[in-house]
Amino acid sequence: MTRILSYNILVGGTRRIDFIERMIRTVNPDVVGLVEAINPEIVKELARRLDMEYRTNAAPDGSWRPSIALLSRLPILRSAVHTGGGVISRPLLEVGLEEESGEKLTVFVNHLTASFSVGRGGDGLRRKEVQEVLDVLRANHEPHVLMGDFNALAPGDQLKASRLLSYLIEVDRRWKKRTPEHFGHPSLDGVVPPQLRLFNPLLRLIPRNRVLSALFDEAGALYAPRASIGLLKAAGYVDCFRYQNPRAWGFTCPAANPAGRIDYFFANPSLATRLNACKVVEGNEEVCGKDASDHLPIMADFGVGIEALLRPYMAGLVQAQEIAGEAH
């Protein structure tokens, strides 16, 4: 079995590395995809502590810094970085791995743009990014998985917009203190389009009223665009969490008051047949998810493929045929 974790660690995680390490260790993964891994020293240190190899999406010539990384206990066979002709806001990281069973597995780590105040929640930009990502994925014929922070809702998913609003208001209140711990968290102005910010004083009243909160949840669910995730599903990729948990919310963000599911695993059909489990990781008695990042990580387990299971049998059959041939 191969266990993979996808984790947005919030602006590099520099001051929270101990919490991040503990969150990762709660599930003992073989592979970890890190989003917002902008500090290469933190990536190196996490790899050292977890006894893993690592790769990042930094430019080989140093023209851009890393923002995505992959840590692995499994042997890394190759890696590549895809810029999507400049359409993709953060270059896509591709890493080829060899599983314990000997099977080949390709992992893509992705971070779509947020840009929630642009257009209808920034979904037009994310659709263009997904189309570029799909062009890369179509060239890969091995079992593969695309994971990371997609900043988008899936068709049919719940959204508790009042929870998100409450979180943004609290962040804005704390942001006035200019504490480093809150750098990188979204703000109300960062989500509300400029032409609608005159309503911000009214928005701040909504979380105080249960009826208004319920109405805001309904309106938010209708407003939130879902087309970018729909493109992946239309291309045949399996939403691993939703496949394993048809009715669960699976909210991953914000960790302090989960309101929506924006972190995903998408497996191609050949890998999806091996999916055993997929769940959101909330922490344990030693570490709380909100202390480590503004996202909760998500984990997926993939079992051994049928070819690997049959390999010893087929090898034995070939050997028996060879012995029989020599006997004649």
* CATH architectural type of the largest domain: 4-Layer Sandwich
The quaternary structure here is single chain
The profile of the biggest β sheet is: 6 strands, mixed
C-alpha-based Rg, rounded: 21 Å
Low-confidence stretches: none
Mean pLDDT: 90
Tell how many strands the DSSP assignment holds. 12
Count of separate DSSP helical elements = 12
Task: Give a nutshell description of this structure.
The chain is α+β, with helices and mostly antiparallel strands.
General description of the model:
The structure is a single chain. This protein is 35% helix and 20% strand. It is an alpha+beta fold and 328 residues long. The chain folds into two domains: 2-159 and 225-327, 4-Layer Sandwich (Deoxyribonuclease I, Chain A); 161-223, no CATH class. The longest helix has 22 residues, at 306-327. The model has no long low-confidence stretch (mean pLDDT 90).
